[in-house]
């Protein structure tokens, strides 16, 4: 659960220390420092440890990221869902992630996801996507465990260097990897008609990716 614990660190009236990579913090102190560092575009708290990613490359992250965004945005607007790119997600007291893409139901009090007083998304979205270049080991180990523990229904990791897509579905408390069909497509178990043409995705063919989605 997400708690708003106040610690001696978060009560300090002195200058706010900067975020440092690999520093151990609780959620309240992590957010306090992150909010104060306006030049930092992405930082995550993973099992109580601060992670500050490397610069983003066009070929291995930025362009693939855009493909995923276009795919999920197209589906979301046609099905009355919410799509959030690179939004801070508060999962529990030691984990604040900034996934590349989130697809979920509308945030509401008592729902799977909700917005806190500061406008941060809290809870367990139905589907999360990470585009993994240099972070593949973290995404498939530490983040996978946290998403699974917090009840995220489906988790996609696009390993751009390996040219592989992993789509995990939560079943009986465990993530089960989906197998690619003969048509080179993967399909959501949560959202009807959410189809991923993996061959088109790896080829960065946005037109085919959206065409396959519209066919369902």
Automatic annotation (TrEMBL):
Signal peptide positions (record): none
GO molecular function: endonuclease activity
Gene3D superfamilies for the chain: tt1808, chain A
Keyword flag Hydrolase: yes
Record domain Putative restriction endonuclease: where: 28-198
Keyword Cytoplasm applies: no
Organism superkingdom: Bacteria
SUPFAM superfamilies referenced in this protein's UniProt entry, alphabetically: Restriction endonuclease-like
Record keywords: Endonuclease, Hydrolase, Nuclease
Record protein name field: Putative restriction endonuclease
Organism the protein comes from: Prosthecobacter fusiformis
């Amino acid at each position: 659960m997400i708690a708003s614990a106040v610690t001696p660190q978060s009560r300090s009236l002195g200058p706010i220390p900067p975020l440092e990579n690999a520093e151990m913090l609780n959620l309240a102190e992590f957010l306090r420092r992150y909010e104060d560092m306006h030049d930092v575009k992405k930082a995550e708290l993973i099992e109580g440890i601060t992670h500050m990613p490397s610069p983003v490359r066009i070929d291995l992250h930025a362009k693939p990221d855009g493909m995923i965004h276009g795919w999920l945005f197209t589906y979301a607007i046609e099905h009355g869902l919410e799509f959030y790119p690179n939004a801070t997600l508060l999962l529990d007291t030691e984990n604040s992630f900034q996934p590349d893409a989130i697809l979920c139901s509308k945030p509401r009090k008592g729902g799977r996801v909700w917005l806190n007083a500061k406008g941060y998304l809290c809870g367990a979205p139905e589907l999360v996507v990470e585009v993994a270049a240099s972070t593949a080991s973290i995404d498939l180990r530490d983040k996978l465990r946290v998403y699974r523990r917090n009840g995220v229904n489906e988790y996609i990791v696009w390993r751009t260097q390996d040219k592989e897509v992993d789509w995990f579905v939560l079943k009986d408390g465990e993530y089960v990897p989906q197998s690619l069909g003969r048509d080179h497509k993967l399909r959501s178990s949560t959202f009807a008609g959410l189809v991923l043409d993996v061959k088109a995705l790896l080829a960065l063919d946005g037109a085919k990716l959206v065409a396959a989605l519209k066919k369902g």
